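Changelog-adjacent note: as of this version, every example in the card shows the full chain rather than a window. The one below runs 185 residues end to end.
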Amino acid sequence: MSAEQRPDLAAIMGGAELRRWYWLKEELQGFARNLGVSAAGGKETLTARLVAHLDGEQFTEPAPSRTGKTAQLTGTLTADSVIPQGQRCSQVVRAWFVEQVGPSFGFDAAMREFFAHTDGTQTMHDALEHYRATRDQTNKPIDAQFEYNRFTRNWHEAHPAGTRNELLTAWREYRAQPIDQRGRI
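Full-length structure tokens:
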């Protein structure tokens, strides 16, 4: 049985075939431009837009995540600073967290999620408690759009002594296979 070869993106004729393969966002953007389709948005939205176009279906653009400008924290923050609804993961907030927990602080998925759902009643103390509570998770879930990151984590668990070149070779082989013929990582 010979392995199926990843087709040229320009040869894709339907949405199901597009979804069978791994494509870089940059590849999808170029394909969209060639088809006269908007290349804006994240990879998942772009893929859904292309699938709809290829299948001759209507695509409803997702609603914008933010409407208008919202108040943001500025200046010197304290644990009692109230987080306004719509607060972004800004450099001011990052600086405060670095003061509290050290330079290893980063806005991971758990913290981005926390700030995305603030309603104007939480304080920076609440945010710090959330940060500390989510640090105990050894293997945090990786969102679907970060397939390379999931593959890398799983590959390193299976090959602890593996080299970067071996990882990249395995990744190229993995993504060259159609999704229905490989195990999802």
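Structural remarks: The helical segments are 15-19, 25-35, 43-54, 91-101, 109-116, 124-133, 147-158, 164-175.
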